[in-house]
Structures are given as C-alpha cells and as structure tokens.
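does this look right to u?? phosphoric acid mono(formamide)ester version
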Amino acid sequence: MKHFTSVHDLDSLDEALKLAFELKKDPYKYQTLGKNKTLLLVFFNSSLRTRLSTQKAGLNLGMNVIVFDINEGGWKLETELGVIMDGDKPEHIREAVPVIGKYCDIIGVRSFAKFENREDDYQEKIIQQFIDYAGVPVVSMEAATRHPLQSFADHLTIEEFKTKERPKVVLTWAPHPRALPQAVPNSFVEWMRQTDYELVVTHPEGYELAPEFMGDLKPEYDQMKAFEGADFIYAKNWAAYNDYGKILSKDMNWTVTDRQMAVTNNAKFMHCLPVRRNMIVSDSVIDGPNSIVVPEAENRLFSAQAVLKMLLDQMK
Ligand SMILES: CCC[C@H](NC(=O)CCC(=O)O)C(=O)O
Ligand SMILES: NC(=O)OP(=O)(O)O
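got this back:
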C-alpha cells in the first residue's frame, strides 16, 4: 500500500480488519514501530474526530506528530498551474507540498470538495498533488470524494455490533441547512460494496451519487420501504452530484425519527459526526439505546492506527 485514499488501496480488507481489531485489544503493541518517524497532519478544513484520532494513532505507534492547520498557519496556496501569482496567494502548492514532505515520513491530508467545479473535485486535484509531489505516503483524512478512514471505522463498527452474518445496512440521506460533500456517502457505499452486507441507499430523487461509487446499486426513493427490516441505519446529508453542489430538498420528513426506526429490525443508528440534531436525526434516536455514534467515533482511532501501522511496516 503506497497511499491510503480508498478501500482499493488496501492489499487485503480482511487483514486490515484483523489488524484494527488486534490494535483495539492492545493499542500499544507496536509502540516503538514509529520511533523517529514523523506524521504530519495537514488540515484545509475543520475537524474533531479525525484530528484527535489520527494524532493519537500516530502517538500510539511511537511517532512524532505535527498538526498543521494550513489556512491558519501557512501561506494561502495557489493550486492552479499557469496562474500569474499577483493576487492574494503568496505560495504555490507545487512548492509547499514537496517542502512539507521533507519534514515528515507520512502525511495526512484533509481537503473537502470545494463545489466550484465537479471535475476538479472528482479528479481529487488537491490530494493528488500531495500524492504526486510530497515524496512520502499520503493518507486521506477526507478528500473531495472519499473519507476512507471513516468508512474503515464504520466497517469495524458494523462487524462489532452485527447480530447476523449478512446485516441489512441502509444509507439514508437526511436534510441539512448547508451543502455538504458527497465524500462520506461515496466512501461508505464504495466500502460497503466490498462486503457481503445487504446494502440499500435511500434518498430523494436528484440526490443520486456518482455512478463510479454506486456501481449497479439502484437507490430506493421510498425511505420507509428502505428502512423495513434494517439492522443498521447510517444517516448523512450530502448535496446533489448531478446538479453539482445544490441543495434540492430540506424535507424534514427525511429526518430519522422513531417513526422510521420502528419499521427496522431494532436497527443500530450510525452517523460519522458532527451531526445536526433534529435535522439529520431526532434527539430521541441519537440519545436512544440503539445509537452507536460514540463507539463508531472511537473506532476512528483503530482504523487510523491500522493504516499507519501498515505504512510504517513498509519503511522497516
Ligand atoms: C465527517 C464529516 C465532515 C463534513 N461535515 C461537515 O462539513 C458538517 C458541517 C456542518 O454541519 O455545518 C462532511 O459532511 O463531509
Ligand atoms: N467523522 C469525522 O471525520 O469527524 P471530524 O470531521 O470531526 O474529523
């Protein structure tokens, strides 16, 4: 594994799962592996879980960790080639990235979709320049079209809580006041399609995810029908892909409440967080006995630690 940007970068999903569970049992098992190795986490966007869990994952492996909020601490970056840099951006990403690469052994990058140009976002223009020019392994901490550390943790969580071999897992859209990226749903669908779970994606018409992630999966536009007999409900908002970046609906009938959970098979409720309560999900559901959002967030530590361990193993 050279970089970690999607489930497809893993040499073996089963081995990665086993490693994550091994690390959960004994987080300090490889605490000298990362000695004298530096993990540098570059954030273009806000974060709580990714920032804390990925930093702790590096520390658990004995790494030195630097966290860099590039928009606060660094120079404003030009990311386009051929631009005459006479504006408000003193530095080009083409210099910043190789320089950052000289100060570390592994880079984590968070750079959300900008919704300015679908092609730029879906070609992953920012993280791809880190991959092309940093000279060290790059780990996605949510890029424009995927959030693989989250999806890995989601898979771990479902494996921990499932009560049958092939659970029914439902990804449901829910309303939100802002236009959010498709990265989490894309990544969740792509990752879940690597398992033998029964996966259902439900959302209003117009919110179809990109075909490259859905494959031959067809969405269910009737949320109640989708929820019938479900074992896991994974709620998330995302802006439209086809009408790129647009908010087409704020229909609060899609907010996950006891009404929808009542037709499930006593389903667990999941969300990557942060979550807008009473937009995405009612207080009673997220505070209820079936909500596993905190154990899900806890597993972010072990998905990150497993990825870092695999990358460090290649440096021995
Ligand atoms: C892990 C999720 C990160 C991000 N979430 C947000 O940007 C939420 C912001 C908000 O609720 O205003 C997203 O939806 O991709
Ligand atoms: N789920 C997740 O990545 O949370 P943060 O955006 O707080 O890191």
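The longest strand covers residues 38-43. idk if thats expected tbh
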